[in-house]
Design a protein that fits this description.
The protein is mainly beta and about 400 residues long. The protein has three helices and 26 strands.
Length: about 400
């Protein structure tokens, strides 16, 4: 018995020492990210003081770092697969020195997957755009328990210091989440592929949003908390006086048309099945844009998919603002549907039918007018709102 005990101790000691040896063999590797400005930035400009977030796609661990005076970011990490997000905003004065244009701007990047198995250098080309004047201020898409999702709304806010005309403004969504994939982006990331598009109607005279004003677009323009066609679990009243416009789905004669809330014009449909407009409680890519020739824009079938569904291809140059919403934090950038220069990140309420929305963070308040954060990176610009609240900034 004593001999058996000694043998067991020898075996356990060997196993433990082997495990320790294996553990010591897991070492970090060094990676250097060299950031590069977009080609249209003034030659010789160096992308320094740019924040990057490096996320381990397996563990979820995130390193936050800043580029040095040479535009480099050095890190020691465990071998693995990573996602990288980079972003920085510039004031109008700073942008003038970098781009030649005196308008608040930003740069960002979203690179995935970044496979790091040994010491290496990675070049990261930044995308750049000017800050938009109209922004998507809040997007409520998750619905509430009992699978009620007709209380969706989108709030569009004038984040500038001048009046902006909004009749004939377009709003559209990409495909929603599916079992196969979240969506697709063109090879050159030069277009957004939209499943449905709506337009603010021209009602006989131009409509303007003044600085600090917003436009609320509802799926159904009713008080969802109290209306017999609503749901008492809903957090929102989107009836007359709150919603400026509602979507009306005339194709199946099953959508209720609220007579006191004007209808948006349905400008494009990849399909007209179902009984309402359904952008999806698991999120979608949502954009607002202007177009001088919308009817002439091409349509495209999703690559590698046998479905005959066609999506409207809208150039990124027409896009004013966009936000990428997804079903959960487990969704990676490989499933993005909006090009990086429209939205470098993603945002989620965390679960379907949660009754939560995503809303833009407040940047500052100037003379009583709220200015919202806008770096075209929803991971940084948005937060989860537990109580969806059109026209309430806090």
């Amino acid at each position: 018995m004593r001999i058996l005990h000694i043998l067991c101790l020898i075996v356990i000691t060997y196993i433990v020492s082997s495990c320790r040896k294996d553990f010591k063999e897991i070492t970090t590797v060094d990676v250097v990210f060299q950031l590069e400005f977009p080609d249209n930035y003034i030659p010789g400009s160096v992308p320094q003081d740019i924040t990057i977030q490096l996320k381990n796609n397996i563990t979820g661990d995130v390193k936050t770092m800043t580029s040095d005076a040479d535009g480099r970011v050095a890190a020691s990490v465990l071998p693995g697969t990573y996602s990288l997000i980079a972003s920085k905003s510039y004031s109008a004065e700073e942008a003038l020195l970098l781009t030649g244009y005196e308008q608040e701007s930003f740069v960002n990047a979203n690179v995935t997957p970044v496979v790091i198995t040994e010491n290496k250098s990675v070049n990261v080309k930044l995308s750049g755009s000017k800050t938009g004047d109209l922004v998507i201020r809040e997007y409520y898409y998750s619905g509430v328990p009992s699978a009620y999702f007709y209380d969706l709304f989108i709030e569009i806010y004038n984040n500038s210091n001048q009046s902006i005309r909004v009749d004939s403004l377009y709003m559209g969504n990409t495909k929603t989440a599916s079992a196969a994939a979240y969506g697709f982006i063109g090879d050159n990331q030069d277009s957004v592929y939209l499943s449905h598009v709506w337009m603010v109607p021209y009602e006989g005279q131009a409509r303007y949003l003044e600085p600090g004003e917003s436009l609320v677009l509802a799926m159904d323009g009713i008080n969802h908390k109290s209306d017999p066609n609503g749901n008492p679990n809903s957090p929102v009243n989107l009836g007359p006086g709150v919603a400026d416009y509602e979507t009306y789905w005339p194709y199946t004669n099953r959508d209720t048309d609220e007579p006191d809330v004007p209808n948006l014009i349905h400008a494009y449909a990849s399909g007209t099945a179902g009984f309402d407009w359904l952008p999806g409680v698991a999120g979608c890519g949502l954009v607002i844009f202007n177009s001088a020739n919308f009817e002439e824009l091409p349509v495209r079938r999703e690559p590698g998919v046998t479905s005959a569904t066609l999506y409207k291809a809208v150039p990124v140059t027409d896009i004013i603002d966009g936000v990428e919403t997804v079903g959960s934090a487990a969704i990676t950038a490989a499933s993005k549907r909006l090009p990086i220069m429209i939205d470098a990140g993603m945002i989620t309420v965390g679960a379907n039918y949660s009754g939560k929305s995503v809303r833009r963070k407040v940047k500052s308040v100037i003379n009583g007018r709220t200015i919202f954060v806008d770096t075209n990176n929803s991971s940084n610009d948005f937060e989860v709102n537990n109580s969806p609240s059109p026209r309430k900034w806090n």
